[in-house]
Amino acid sequence: MKKFFRIMALCASLSLCCAGCVFRQGGAGGQGGTGGGNAGGAWSYTDTAMGTVVQQSIYVKGRDAAERVSGEIMEYLGRLEREMLSWRLDTSEVYRVNASAGSGEGYALSGEMASLLQDCLELYRQSEGAFDVTLGPVVRLWNIDQWAAGKQTGDFRAPSRGELDEALELCGSDKIIIMREDAPQPGRESDLTIILPEGMMLDLGAVGKGYALDGIRDILEQEPEITGAVISLGGSVLVYGEKPDERSWRVGIVDPLRPSENIGVLSLKGQWCITTSGDYERYAEADGVRYHHILDPATGFPADGGVRGVTILSKDGEIGDGLSTACFILGAEKGMELAGRYGAEALFVLEDGSIVMSEGMEDYFTYSAGR
Ligand code: AMP
Ligand code: MG
Prior knowledge:
Blueprint: E1 5-9, E2 14-18, E3 21-24, E4 34-39, E5 42-49, E6 52-59, H1 63-85, H2 93-99, E7 107-108, H3 111-126, H4 136-142, H5 144-149, H6 161-168, E8 177-180, E9 192-195, H7 208-221, E10 228-233, E11 236-241, E12 249-255, E13 258-268, E14 272-278, E15 282-286, E16 289-292, E17 307-314, H8 317-330, H9 332-341, E18 345-350, E19 355-357, H10 359-362, E20 365-367
Antiparallel strand pairs: 1-15, 2-3, 2-12, 4-5, 5-6, 6-10, 7-9, 8-9, 10-11, 11-14, 12-13, 13-20, 14-17, 15-16, 17-18, 18-19
Helix pairs in contact: 1-7, 3-8, 7-8, 8-9
C-alpha cells in the first residue's frame, strides 16, 4: 500500500508586530529579494539566505543608507553560509572540518569557529548532552534539510532503530578532541586544532541563525545613523535600537498548537534576540505519524519531553539559539534551570497548550486576547 506522507517546511515561529502593522515571518525557500518600501520610518526588505526568509526593517533617514546596510547584511549572511557554516558547500569551514574526520591530523580552526565550537561544547556539558552539534549523521539520516527546503517529493520513511543506532555511534561531542598548539602559528587567529573521529559530522543548524544575528548586530553597530532595526531569520529575531516614537518593539510568539495564531506578544526596548524552537517549524509525516526536527541525542528520535515550543529571550543570539534547542529537549523544568544559568529568559508551550515561563519573561510577555 502506498504510504501517505506529507512534508512541511514552515519556518514561521515568530511574528513581528509593529505599531499599526503585523508581519509574519516567511517559510523556507523564496524567490529572491523584494522591498525598499518605507512604512512608519522603516525601510523594509525581504530576501532569502541560510535556507530561510530574511526580513529586514531598518530605521534610518534615506533610502541609500537603508539599501547599503541591507545589502551588507545579505552579503554577510551569504558569506557566513559559504565560508563558515554550510555542511554541504566545500568552501565552508564546517565542510572542511567534517572532511578531516578520521584523518588523525585534525583541522586548524579559525578564531571564529574555535570560539563558536567552544560555546557549543560548553552547552553540551551544561545540557548534559541534550544539545549536541555532532548529531550530523542522524540529521542526515532523517533528511531534515530536505524537509526544510520543501523539496522531498518521494516517500518519506522514518529511519529504523538499527540505522539510528549505527548513526548514533558516530555522534557525541565528548569524542571531539581540541588541541592547543604549543607555539602560535603565524597568520592564524586561533591556536586550536580540532580532531574528529572517523564518520563524525558537525551540524551547526541549531545555532547558525542566532550566531548570524550577533554578526548582524555588529554590522548595525558600525552604522551610527541607524536608529533602530528588526531583523528576522526564520525563527530567530533581532530587535535593535529604538523606534522613532519610542514605543516598544512587539514580537509575537506563535502558538505551536495553532501556528496561524500567536499565544502572545513580547514588548521590548533596545537590543534583544528572540529565538524559538518548535515542533511545527519543520516536520515530515509518514503513516499518520508526525516527526519533527529537534532530535533527542539519547534516542536519535524527535524529542518528546512534552514541549511543543520554546522561546528564549537573550542579549546574545548564538546562546539564545542554542538554548532554545537544548531547552526543547530537556523539557520545562530542566530547561528553565539551564536558561537561568545563562542569564536568559525562557517560555515553554507544553503539549496541552499550557504556558510556563521564567519570572523575568513575565515582565515582557502579554497573552493574546482570549487566553
Ligand atoms: P533549532 O530549530 O534551532 O532548534 O535547530 C534545529 C536544528 O538543529 C535541526 O534542524 C538540526 O539540524 C539540528 N539539531 C537537531 N537536534 C539537535 C540537538 N539535539 N542538538 C544540536 N543540534 C540539533
Ligand atoms: Mg536553536
